[in-house]
């Protein structure tokens, strides 16, 4: 049985198979949904209702006949390339658009959105949390979202005014009926949603429940408008007492001891996510997008839930916050009797490996599952490729030999009139056509057609297909041009920086940087790590000449070409795309080049297309798709193209991984690792620092590591690799790289965790 669902605003269409049995006590932390199809409607402005399942194909298909299976308490990492629909699938789960999700299930989600539009959707009560808490302080907003305190307080205010006031003896009755009517309105919303999501016997029962709910709602409206003189004495007494009882019950939910406990947990979570104590009383409306996102994340982590969905939760967190969140999620099973099931999306490989027990791979419109982390998954793919590759090679040789034998038998049979030879050739040809394929299943056992292939009715085996290595889009960086004479690309000598002291202030402005020395030569790999606010952005401003040092000198090579990727580059391109709706990547890059005063970076259209294609923006994606429709990962590649068209010798990359999937992060790391120019990386992504700066190969590429190391041996001898820690205005080299910084933060995290 299939059913159809639609959500008019999001235009997400979902169908799935549903059991005919009514499950009385479902485990709300588990999902087991088969035959799942998810499509994003092609016409957002029109009604998404479709009478037949085939009509769903008119939109962008994300899942086709997939199985969504979540086990209680397990932490899952949802992985897939940019644009495959990970965020949309999570949204469909959170909004319960998928038939088969028990409606009482509590699902909380942190959605990945633009920095200035960060909102957290909670599917408790069927509605998303609004931004009405912006007037509240950070601490108040977190508690309010997690406990619905403002809604409870509104009901308390309505009832207490009626009971304590002297306006009318019937005021408590009217207040009770108003509260009950408002609650019934929310209940009717759920019943309507349930009726639209179900079909068959359960759908009929849901529609009956909806009709009954509509009848109760109409009766409630009649009760609200009923004249006072028509009320009986017994009704007045009974409902006045009910109003008092409900007020006591609501007040108990907000009793000081309970709120104090919630407030203590909220403070601990906010502290772990990097909020200074002084900022907890700041209004949410005064926060930047990144800090609002942390506020939303804190409220999601605080509230009780059955399924916790986190879409890129590490965005805008520094490494201390990332490690704290890792430990918090890992300890969830021990902190409650019924720990939630966790599903998360992240570009941070180390974060996924630390938190997730299983992976859900979204690829080719299907969901596949793997028990283990990304390192184990990568190894399993390589092992499977190696095994099936050998099997296919051996089979191709066997096929070639059989084909030669068949041709010889046909030739000899026809020449001599030997029917046995011809029958033998026909039999072998049938075997070659129907039975030469998968000889063993994935477990290594004997292949059985009716068990190991998709249908006993099929008359031939499938060909051996070697799984492709999904690294995302391949990235190739153009070589950096040689300098005409030697010397460092850029040098900072005894640089000190502090902002000017305000005229009316007697206290001098604090020193941001003090006595900083930094030399960058061709081929160097420099990493810069530190907590938010430590001065990393200031160093970048000094290197890119957007700020001048208070003391000290900044020296640049006369012929240096520098490419700077800002952490806000993707958002800036998004804004540009909205301002110019028809602007494409090809036109923008062409316009940049035509406006350039440097004659050396002139490229014709073919060269521009080649550059865009090498970074993953090929063909019509570059020339026909407007910027406003490009994904975050595609905007990152366009920003890189704008830098690389100048053929820089130095790349300064500030949080470049934020909008990329981990496959593309891997491809970018490999491209940067072999590039002949100098790279300075500012990032909280430990994998990127280790791979690009420290030169530690990811396990994915170690299969042919000896050959690659021998090829790069000469370059490695010339290349300087240093990871610097910026702290309290001073900069020092870390002997053990980013791992040393990570170890130092582990001790701080232990003090911040909820015991």
UniProtKB/TrEMBL annotation:
<feature type="domain" description="ABC transporter">
    <location>
        <begin position="33"/>
        <end position="389"/>
    </location>
</feature>
<dbReference type="GO" id="GO:0016887">
    <property type="term" value="F:ATP hydrolysis activity"/>
</dbReference>
<keyword id="KW-0378">Hydrolase</keyword>
<dbReference type="InterPro" id="IPR050611">
    <property type="entry name" value="ABCF"/>
</dbReference>
<feature type="domain" description="ABC transporter">
    <location>
        <begin position="490"/>
        <end position="726"/>
    </location>
</feature>
<dbReference type="InterPro" id="IPR003439">
    <property type="entry name" value="ABC_transporter-like_ATP-bd"/>
</dbReference>
<dbReference type="Pfam" id="PF00005">
    <property type="entry name" value="ABC_tran"/>
</dbReference>
<feature type="compositionally biased region" description="Basic and acidic residues">
    <location>
        <begin position="430"/>
        <end position="448"/>
    </location>
</feature>
<dbReference type="GO" id="GO:0005524">
    <property type="term" value="F:ATP binding"/>
</dbReference>
<feature type="compositionally biased region" description="Polar residues">
    <location>
        <begin position="401"/>
        <end position="410"/>
    </location>
</feature>
<dbReference type="InterPro" id="IPR017871">
    <property type="entry name" value="ABC_transporter-like_CS"/>
</dbReference>
<keyword id="KW-0677">Repeat</keyword>
<keyword id="KW-0067">ATP-binding</keyword>
<protein>
    <submittedName>
        <fullName>P-loop containing nucleoside triphosphate hydrolase protein</fullName>
    </submittedName>
</protein>
<keyword id="KW-0547">Nucleotide-binding</keyword>
<feature type="region of interest" description="Disordered">
    <location>
        <begin position="395"/>
        <end position="448"/>
    </location>
</feature>
<dbReference type="InterPro" id="IPR027417">
    <property type="entry name" value="P-loop_NTPase"/>
</dbReference>
<dbReference type="InterPro" id="IPR003593">
    <property type="entry name" value="AAA+_ATPase"/>
</dbReference>
């Amino acid at each position: 049985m299939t059913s159809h669902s639609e959500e008019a605003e999001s235009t997400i269409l979902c169908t799935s198979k549903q059991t005919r049995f009514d499950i009385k006590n479902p485990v709300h932390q588990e999902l087991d949904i088969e035959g799942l199809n998810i499509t994003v409607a092609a016409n957002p402005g029109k009604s998404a209702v479709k009478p037949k399942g085939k009509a769903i194909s008119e939109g962008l298909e994300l899942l086709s006949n997939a199985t969504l299976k979540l086990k209680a308490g397990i932490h899952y990492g949802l992985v897939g390339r940019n644009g495959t629909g990970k965020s949309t699938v999570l949204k469909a789960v959170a909004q319960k658009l998928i038939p088969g999700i028990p409606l009482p299930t509590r699902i909380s989600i942190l959605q990945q959105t633009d920095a200035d539009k960060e909102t957290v959707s909670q599917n408790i009560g069927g509605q998303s949390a609004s931004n009405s808490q912006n007037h509240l302080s950070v601490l108040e907003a977190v508690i309010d979202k997690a406990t619905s305190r403002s809604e409870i307080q509104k009901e308390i205010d309505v009832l207490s005014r009626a009971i304590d006031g002297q306006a009318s003896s019937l005021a408590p009755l009217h207040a009770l009926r108003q509260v009950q009517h408002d609650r019934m309105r929310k209940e009717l919303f759920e019943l309507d949603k349930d009726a639209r999501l179900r079909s068959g016997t359960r759908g009929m029962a849901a529609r009956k429940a909806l009709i009954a709910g509509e009848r109760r709602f109409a009766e409630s409206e009649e009760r609200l408008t009923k004249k006072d003189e028509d009320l009986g004495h017994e009704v007045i007494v009974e409902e006045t007492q009910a109003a008092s009882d409900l007020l006591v019950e609501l007040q108990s939910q907000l009793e000081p001891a309970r709120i104090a406990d919630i407030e203590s947990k909220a403070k601990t979570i906010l502290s772990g996510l990097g909020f200074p104590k002084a900022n907890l009383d700041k209004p949410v409306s005064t926060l930047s997008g990144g800090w609002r996102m942390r506020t939303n994340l804190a409220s999601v982590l605080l509230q009780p839930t059955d399924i916790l969905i986190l879409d890129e939760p590490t965005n805008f967190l520094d490494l201390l916050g990332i490690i704290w969140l890792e430990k918090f999620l890992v300890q969830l099973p021990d902190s409650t009797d019924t720990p939630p099931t966790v599903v998360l999306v992240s570009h941070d490989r180390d974060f996924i490996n630390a938190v997730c027990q299983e992976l859900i791979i979204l690829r080719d419109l299907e969901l596949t599952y793997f028990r283990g982390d990304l390192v184990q998954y990568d190894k399993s793919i390589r092992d499977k490729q190696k095994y099936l590759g050998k099997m296919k090679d051996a089979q191709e040789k066997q096929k070639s030999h059989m084909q030669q034998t068949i041709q010889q038998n046909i030739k000899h049979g026809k020449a001599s009139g030997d029917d046995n030879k011809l029958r033998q050739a026909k039999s072998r040809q049938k075997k070659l056509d129907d039975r030469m394929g998968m000889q063993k299943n994935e477990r290594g056992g004997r292949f059985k057609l009716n068990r190991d292939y998709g249908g006993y009715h099929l008359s031939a085996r499938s060909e051996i297909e070697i799984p492709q290595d999904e690294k995302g889009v391949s990235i190739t960086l153009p070589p950096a041009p040689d300098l005409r004479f030697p010397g460092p690309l850029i040098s900072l000598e005894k640089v000190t920086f502090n902002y000017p002291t305000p005229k009316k202030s007697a206290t001098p402005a604090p020193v941001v940087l003090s006595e900083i020395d930094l030399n960058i030569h061709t081929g160097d790999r420099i990493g810069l790590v530190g907590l938010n606010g430590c001065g990393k952005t200031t160093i970048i401003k000094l290197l890119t000449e957007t700020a001048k040092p208070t003391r000290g000198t900044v020296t640049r090579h006369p012929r240096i070409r520098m490419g700077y990727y800002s952490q806000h580059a993707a958002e800036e391109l998004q804004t540009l795309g909205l301002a110019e709706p028809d602007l494409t990547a090809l036109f923008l890059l062409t316009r940049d080049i035509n406006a350039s005063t440097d004659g050396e970076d002139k490229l014709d259209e073919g060269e521009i297309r080649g550059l865009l294609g090498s970074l993953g923006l090929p063909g019509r994606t570059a020339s026909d798709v407007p910027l406003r429709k490009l994904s975050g990962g595609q905007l990152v590649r366009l920003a890189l193209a704008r830098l690389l068209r100048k053929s820089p010798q130095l790349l300064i990359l500030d949080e470049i991984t934020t909008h990329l999937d981990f496959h593309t992060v891997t491809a970018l790391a490999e491209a940067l690792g072999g590039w002949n120019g100098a790279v300075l990386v500012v990032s909280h992504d430990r994998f990127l620092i280790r791979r690009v700066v420290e030169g530690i190969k990811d396990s994915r590429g170690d299969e042919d590591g000896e050959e690659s190391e021998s090829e790069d041996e000469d370059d490695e001898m010339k290349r300087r690799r240093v990871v610097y820690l910026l702290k309290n205005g001073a900069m020092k080299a870390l002997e053990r790289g980013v791992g040393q910084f990570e170890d130092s933060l582990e001790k701080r995290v232990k003090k911040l965790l909820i015991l």
